[in-house]
Fold Nuclear transport factor 2 family protein.
Amino acid sequence: MSFRTAAEIIHRFNHAFIDHDASSLGDLIADDCVREA
């Protein structure tokens, strides 16, 4: 298991959206996560 800082996780999350690469979010978001806008 790899531990990351909150800043690293937010950076990866933001860049996944900027790059339109949802596949890179797999290890950041739980399977049962619900996101509301």
The mean pLDDT is 83. Residues 2 and 24 are 15 Å apart (CA to CA). The chain is about 35% helix and 0% strand.
